[in-house]
Design goal:
Belongs to the EF-1-beta/EF-1-delta family. By secondary structure, the protein is α+β, with helices and mostly antiparallel strands. It is about 40% helix and about 20% strand. Among the domains are: about 60 residues, no CATH class; about 90 residues, Alpha-Beta Plaits, CATH 3.30.70. The protein is built from 9 helices and 6 strands; from the N terminus they run βαααβαααβαββαβα.
């Protein structure tokens, strides 16, 4: 069944595309196809960074188009409320070898040395292709994890409200604080059990504890931190993982 998108260049259309790509790498199927190229061509400009999933997908398809093209047929996609897309815009022939192209453009083929040293232009093009492959691979492999922390105060006189405020004041790219609960540990002392989501490539939980949670000024309230659970969030079980943690805290 064909997938349909409406007014894809509007804020509402981009938001729906971003939500659609939250659990998908491609528009349809498990590999890049002409459906991806169709949606890519329908966008008037790259999605802004606020549309995380759409931006990741757009950059990945752009890299594929620059390097090798896209040959998958896909299942069909409809773009409603946008200008018609021509067949030429969707066509993605394989990228040509730079030396072969240069030879075709040169009237005197005998002057082309296919075994000579690379020119500066060829070296630059090769570096750009390698950088594009590395960037697209990193985006594809980058994942998220859900973490459950136990944060313990110094004693029963520690203001737990201020402790939690201090913890949540930590702002790091790729870190999102979630639900929390105070849990009794004995002798009138309570610990803060709190969930957080991290982007694996951007945040290290060990560094977060050692360099943020247990140093000044937060160590005025925090005595120690323990990792209770660390779960990799997959596309399929992301919701199940978070649901399980929420049930644990109830």
């Amino acid at each position: 069944m064909a997938v349909a998108f409406h007014d894809i260049n509007s804020a509402a259309g981009l938001k729906k595309l971003d939500q659609y790509l939250l659990t998908r790498s491609y528009i349809t199927g498990y590999q890049a196809s002409k459906d991806d190229v169709t949606v890519h061509a329908a966008l008037s400009k790259p999605p802004s960074a606020e549309y995380v999933n759409a931006s990741r997908w757009y950059n990945h398809i752009a890299a594929l188009l620059r390097i090798s093209g896209v040959s998958g047929e896909g299942c069909g996609v409809k773009i409603e409320g946008s200008a018609p897309i021509t067949a030429e815009a969707v066509a993605t022939p394989p990228a040509c070898d730079s030396k072969a192209s240069a030879a075709e453009d040169d009237d005197d083929d005998s002057d082309v040395d296919l075994f000579g040293e690379e020119t500066e232009e060829e070296k630059k093009a090769a570096e750009e292709r390698a950088a594009a492959v590395k960037a697209s691979t990193k985006k594809k492999e980058s994942g998220k994890s859900s973490v459950l922390l136990d944060i313990k105060p110094w004693d029963d006189e520690t203001d737990m409200k201020k402790l939690e405020e201090a913890v949540r004041s930590i702002e790091v790219e790729g870190l999102h604080w979630g639900a929390s609960k105070l849990v009794p540990v004995g002798y009138g002392i309570k610990k803060l059990t709190i969930m957080l989501t991290i982007v694996d490539d951007l945040v290290s939980v060990d560094s977060l504890i050692e360099e943020r949670l247990t140093v000044e000024p937060i160590n005025e309230y925090v005595q120690s931190c323990d990792i209770v659970a660390f779960n990799k969030i997959c596309k399929i079980d992301a919701l199940l993982s978070w649901s399980g943690l929420k049930i644990f805290l109830l």
